[in-house]
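hi! just following up on the protien thing from before. the input was this:
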Amino acid sequence: MNFLEAIYLCGCRIKKNYWMKRRKRLPFKVVSIGNITTGGTGKTPATIALAEGLRLRGYAPVILTRGYRGKAKGPCFVGPGRIIESFGLSGAPLLCGTVEEAGDEPLLMAEKLEKVPVVKCADRYAGGNFALRHLNGEYLEKAVFILDDGFQHWRLYRDLDIVLLDGAKPFGNGRLLPLGVLREPLGALKRADAVLVTKTRNSGLLEEIRAINPAAFVSFSEYAIDSFIDVTGSDLAQESVKAKKAMAFCGIARPESFRNALISAGIEVCDLITFRDHHRYKQADIDLVCGRAHEAGADYIIATEKDMVKIRELRPGKNVLFARAALKLNEEILSFIEKKLDGPQAVK
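and the predicted 3d structure came back as:
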């Protein structure tokens, strides 16, 4: 282990030990979705898929997120004012309805999950209690808290830890931050109750996971683009865009996965312009992309939904589309989670 990695790991362990002694428990079950790398595994699509899957099974999910780069300190509900009526909120709770206040991923989750409340707060325990104070009793009868990016959130007890791994690059170069992408050593996978492999079905990865955590439930997810949205919010069928030439751009952790998803959807990607993850777009960025697309003779310019929530207030151009993608959880992992939720409260 490199000296810089050792310093980083020491800092992580000090933080972990501090908060483990001060952990708190919410009165309902808590499911954490997280990873051991810095990003790009599909936590947001997985959180959306899990919340919707649990809702359809009769649970009342509540998403707790820190809202990275959102300026609102919280706790607050993410979304427009109509969520007060949607969930029967009481007590005039704080709302954050813009990407500047909430952050891009929380706002995307709130927009895609109109029947699931999303709460932004760095302290997820405070966020959970905020939700309990304002949500009506009927909704809370089968409440389940989903902890977004929660594998290293030590201050809150959870009943189930789900860890995501990118099937193409599960551990990066195998080094800890700052020399690699690992937040923790691979042995941290021993804490996982379930491991969800995303992006690519890497069957060989199963043996590596089993060597570290033989008891973990391992599942492979499907992630694909199924339609597109134009700048007016209208849907376009995938078939209408298929075989067209497109300039792609995005500000996500692993942009190549977006290119691959577009190619799998039958799109001819002439180029991919990348920005940093969570990039806050300016009109100059959009003008740059549009200029490059014009030079390349692209029929469309395509970005992700995560980019959409930051771009739509600018002037993106009529030929700009946003790819609507979904991560699909199979019935086996949903049944595994449901069994855990219906069992006794864990002591993790």
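The domain at 225-325 is CATH 3.40.50 (Rossmann fold).
Residues 3-20 form the longest helix (18 residues).
cheers
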